[in-house]
Design a protein that fits this description.
Helix content is about 10%, strand content about 65%. It contains one helix and 13 strands, in the order αβββββββββββββ.
C-alpha cells in the first residue's frame, strides 16, 4: 500500500480522536421546546430597592427559516434565537424588517478579551470565560462574562449591561446600571431555577 494511504488513515484516526474529545454539543444557551429559566429580578433607584419580581423565560415556540430551527417565546413573537457555528444568533422582526433579519449576538466559543459589534450598533466585550457565579439555582463555574456599554447623548443616558452565561445552562445573572438626568437605576436578575429539555 501507498505511504499516502497510511498517512490518510492515521490523520483520519487522529482527527476522529481529537474531534471526539471536543464536546461541540455545549451551547451558550440551550434551546429546545420546553426549556425554562426562572429569575429573581430586583430594581433599584439611587441605591434603594424599588421592586422585586420573578420572571419565567420559557421556550415555547419554534420557527423554521431556511431550514434552520429558531426558538422563541410566545410573549415575544418578534424575537427568536438559535445556536450555530460561532455562537448564539438572534432573529428579529420589526417594522423596518417585516421579513426579519438575523445577526450574531453572542460569540461562543470565544476567548476573554474579544470584542465584536452585533446588530451593527452594539459593541459586546467578552471579559472572561472563567467567572464563578453563585445563585439560588446553584454554583456555576467557567461562566462567560459579557459587557455591553451604551450611551445616548440625545437621551442623556449612560448604561452598562453585564451578563454571565454558563455554557450548557444559559444566563445565570445579569446586572444593568443606567444613569439619566442625575438618577441611577439598576436591575439585577439572578437564576433561581431552571429546566432543560435538551
Amino acid at each position: 500500500m501507498d505511504r499516502r494511504f497510511y498517512t490518510f488513515i492515521m490523520m483520519s484516526f487522529l482527527f476522529g480522536i481529537i474531534s471526539g474529545c471536543i464536546d461541540d454539543t455545549i451551547t451558550l444557551r440551550p434551546l429546545a421546546l420546553g426549556n425554562w429559566w426562572v429569575y429573581e429580578v430586583t430594581d433599584t433607584l439611587n441605591g434603594a430597592q424599588v421592586g422585586s419580581v420573578r420572571d419565567t423565560v420559557r421556550i415555547d415556540t419554534m420557527l423554521i427559516r431556511d431550514g434552520a430551527r429558531w426558538f422563541g417565546q410566545k410573549r415575544q413573537p418578534y424575537w427568536f434565537q438559535r445556536n450555530d457555528r460561532g455562537g448564539l444568533y438572534t432573529l428579529v422582526f420589526d417594522a423596518a424588517h417585516p421579513n426579519g433579519y438575523d445577526y450574531l449576538a453572542w460569540r461562543f466559543p470565544a476567548k476573554g478579551g474579544e470584542e465584536w459589534t452585533n446588530n451593527d450598533t452594539v459593541t459586546v466585550s467578552l471579559v472572561s470565560t472563567t467567572e464563578r457565579v453563585t445563585t439560588a439555582a446553584g454554583r456555576f463555574s467557567n461562566c462567560c462574562r459579557y459587557v455591553i456599554p451604551y450611551r445616548s447623548d440625545s437621551l442623556r443616558l449612560i448604561s452598562e449591561w453585564t451578563i454571565w452565561r454558563k455554557p450548557g445552562v444559559g444566563t445565570v445573572k445579569t446586572y444593568t446600571v443606567s444613569t439619566r438626568g442625575g438618577q441611577t437605576t439598576s436591575r439585577t436578575e439572578t437564576l433561581i431555577n431552571f429546566y432543560l429539555n435538551q
